[in-house]
Write a structure and sequence with these properties.
Strand content of chain B: 5-15%
Number of strands of chain A: 13
Mean pLDDT of chain A: 92
Structural class of chain A: alpha+beta
Low-confidence stretches of chain B: none
Mean pLDDT of chain B: 94
Oligomer: heterodimer
CATH class of the largest domain in chain B: Alpha Beta
Helix content of chain A: 40-55%
Distance between the termini of chain B: 48 Å
Distance between the termini of chain A: 31 Å
Number of domains of chain B: 2
Structural class of chain B: alpha/beta
CATH architecture of the largest domain in chain B: 3-Layer(aba) Sandwich
Shape of chain A: globular
CATH superfamily of the largest domain in chain A: Cytochrome-c3 Hydrogenase, chain B
Low-confidence stretches of chain A: 419-429
Largest interface: A-B, 76 and 62 residues
CATH topology of the largest domain in chain B: Rossmann fold
Largest sheet of chain B: 5 strands, parallel
Helix content of chain B: 25-40%
Chain lengths: 429, 264
């Protein structure tokens, strides 16, 4: 088995179009590439000349799985330019909407995209034949996440109720209360899910990552916080462009990212969990403990368990917000346009999602930059693959291929999102 | 719901992706209550977002998401057409070119230069176009995203050999059926409902917002009359009229033509 090439031409159970290429020469690993060939859609270019009010709905179309991440990044950036402060009630409703997206996206990934790998099935439909109760529980949890998004946003994919300054219409308390019973069930189901996925068999694969995420300090991060890492990074989000640099490489239509010193970093649930463990709810933390998770998880294959813990958190947070909900005096704050540059960085289910806009005094966008979490994670995925393949060269091709796919799916890569980003320009060879 | 297919052998279903956000094929996975019934009624033969198992064609039903934006896409859609008995496009990207069709009004070389440091790595067409511009399409399901209810109705009708009940009247009809107050008449909010195809359930007016045309032009729309009302009665500046028509269905002929009357 001297020379081997392992190709996955079209990665399955990820969102979007990607491929993987591994080259082994004389039993030595020579090349690992995560190829992203999703065609570019040029969002940063087409945003130029549009109104600041249009950025949320247009950028939501970057991703059907995590539209809230784009809606929120855009509204926060525009509000920072126009110096709008939203009411505490609107802030809470935004968190609630984001909880809906976390639940929907995490549950989709855990049950339908990732769990089949651990249990040896090609997909969730096959899994459902042997374990119908597991898949049905996942579908019901996912439906609850979508239900939260639908009540607040009008629909689950590309919600229509978000605007710069707040919402078009505040939800009625009764509409939110209607979800309470299901949320109580969901909390039990989520705890059961943590236990279930913690029982999977994991590859022994500890890695030393620089975890980058938001930290708010008083709450587990969703919409706001500073950019922090376990290696001492701690800056406001307006510093993003100075600490995470993008470059264009030939095998990807999604720009790669690295730290300003050239280091590769890791964003997503493992990063959030490591840097904000103290801010989980007691139930989420105790579920993590019971599942055998330490406060910092360095094995990416265990990200499925961390996602399950975050679902527990999101459900508890949704319950808290609904139970204390008071209809805001007005659904949105009026906005007075002013020229400037603003930043938004929020925690999408897959990690930090960054927006930067410049608008003129008419509110017309003159420049836009958006970086999705999967674009940032491309390099760390390649690095994981490299280490994993190197340590497992003795595996037969088919087994190695499947486990490599699984290693990629650890990041729940959203390739549709990660393509077509921006402005920048560091060329290295 | 009754998803039972008539023939004994299950029809083979394929789901394909071109340039898009994944939201329309996600709508299929979002049918939480019906998904397992769908999997009983059809043989999911190719659906990479959901399964790593794939079967070769031919396929009885192909659902196609996304628009055609690269030379490779053009070849691929012809291959898919050859191997599909029924080809159904889902969503605004596949039926009108999507938001990425804004490049059709601009210089794509400039777009590439704005985003990519090494433009020669990028292989793209100057336009983003609907699937029907390239191959014969058996049914176009509109929406950004598609409606889950309409997607299920379409699958159900297709499996049972009947015509899908998918109306092509305007959002206004849905709005009246739902009993919403007209946001344009009552609040002076610009609304594209009168020229937009129904399907969303008049969501935006229900949320005190004007329709922004996720489902594209209705059958025989009169956009000139609507934009005249916007400008004359609601004082909407010409630039805003153009922008409103240039979103997810900018490439749809009725919107494209009208938008060009209001600027390049």
């Amino acid at each position: 088995m001297a020379n081997r090439t392992i190709n996955v031409d079209y990665l399955a159970r990820v969102e979007g179009e990607g491929a993987m290429h591994v080259k082994i020469h004389d039993d030595k690993l020579e090349e690992v590439k995560l190829k992203i060939f999703e065609p570019p859609r040029f969002f940063e270019a087409l945003l130029r000349g549009r109104d600041y009010t249009e950025a949320p709905d247009i950028t939501a179309r970057i991703c059907g799985i995590c539209p809230v991440a784009y809606l929120m990044g855009a509204v926060h950036a525009m509000e920072s330019i126009c110096e709008v402060r939203v009411s505490p009630q609107i802030r809470e409703l935004r968190r609630l909407l984001y909880c809906g997206e976390w639940i929907e996206s995490h549950v989709l990934h855990m049950f339908m995209l990732h769990a089949p790998d651990f249990l040896g099935y090609e997909d969730a439909i096959q899994l459902a034949k042997d374990h119908p109760d597991v898949v049905k529980m996942g579908l019901r949890l996912k439906k609850l996440g979508n239900g939260l998004m639908t009540v607040l946003g009008g629909r689950e994919v590309h919600p229509i109720n978000v605007r710069v300054g707040g919402f078009y219409k505040s939800p009625k308390p009764s509409a939110l209360k209607n979800l309470r019973g299901e949320l109580d069930w969901a909390l039990g189901a989520a705890l059961q899910t943590v236990e279930l996925v913690a029982g999977f068999e994991f590859q022994d694969f500890e890695q030393d990552y620089e975890f980058v995420c938001l930290r708010h300090g008083e709450e587990y991060p969703l919409n706001e916080g500073r950019l922090v890492s376990n290696r001492g990074l701690d800056v406001p989000i307006s510093e993003y462009d100075n600490v995470l640099i993008e470059e264009h490489v030939e095998h990807s239509t999604a720009l790669h990212s690295h730290r300003e010193n050239g280091d590769i970093c890791h964003v997503g649930p493992l990063a959030r969990y490591a840097m904000n463990y103290d801010l989980l709810t007691p139930a989420a933390r105790s579920a993590a403990k019971k599942a055998g998770l330490p406060p910092i998880v360095r094995n990416p294959f265990r990200s499925i368990t961390v996602r399950a813990v975050e679902v527990v958190y999101a459900i508890e947070e949704a319950i808290r917000i609904i139970d204390s909900y008071e209809v805001p005096d007005k659904p949105f704050e009026p906005v007075t346009v002013r020229a400037g540059t603003g930043y938004g960085c929020t925690e999408a289910p897959r990690g930090i999602c960054y927006h930067r806009y410049t608008i003129d005094d008419q509110g017309i966008i003159t420049d836009a930059k958006i970086v999705s979490p999967t674009a940032v994670n491309q390099k760390i995925i390649e690095k994981d693959l490299w280490h994993f393949v190197e340590a497992n060269l003795d595996l037969p091709d088919e087994k190695l291929k499947w486990t490599c796919e699984q290693a990629i799916r650890n990041y729940d890569p959203c390739i549709s999102c990660s393509t077509h980003f921006l402005d920048l320009t560091v060329e290295r060879s | 719901m009754n998803m039972t297919a008539a023939p004994a052998k299950k029809p083979k279903l394929a789901v394909w992706k071109f340039s898009s956000c994944d939201g329309c094929q996600l709508s299929l996975l979002d049918c939480e209550d019906e998904l397992l019934a769908i999997a009983e009624a059809v043989d999911i033969a190719y659906f990479p977002e959901a399964s790593r198992a794939t079967q070769p064609g031919p396929y009885d039903i192909s659902l196609v998401e996304g628009s055609i934006t690269t030379p490779h896409d053009v070849e691929r859609i012809h291959e898919i057409r050859k191997t599909s008995k029924l080809l159904i496009t889902i969503g605004a990207c596949a039926t009108a070119g999507g938001i990425q069709a804004l490049r059709n009004f601009a210089d794509v070389e400039e777009y590439i230069r704005i985003i990519y440091a090494t433009p020669e790595f990028i292989d793209t067409l100057a336009t983003s176009t609907a699937v029907a511009d390239h191959v014969t399409v058996d049914f176009e399901l509109r929406g950004c995203p598609v409606s889950k209810g309409q997607l299920l109705e379409l699958l159900n009708a297709t499996l049972n050999g009947r015509k899908p009940n998918i109306p092509n009247h305007s959002v206004c009809v849905e709005c009246k059926q739902a009993g919403h107050v007209c946001v344009m008449v009552a609040h002076g909010t610009p609304c594209l409902g009168p020229i937009t195809q129904a399907g969303c359930g008049a969501l935006c007016p229900h949320y005190d917002r004007g329709c922004y045309a996720c489902f594209g032009p209705k059958e025989s729309p009169n956009p000139a009359s609507l934009t005249q009302t916007w400008q004359e009665s609601l004082d909407v500046p010409e630039r805003q009229v153009k922008l409103a028509l240039r979103t997810f269905n900018a490439g749809a002929e009725a919107f494209r033509k009208e938008s060009l009357k209001h600027g390049q």
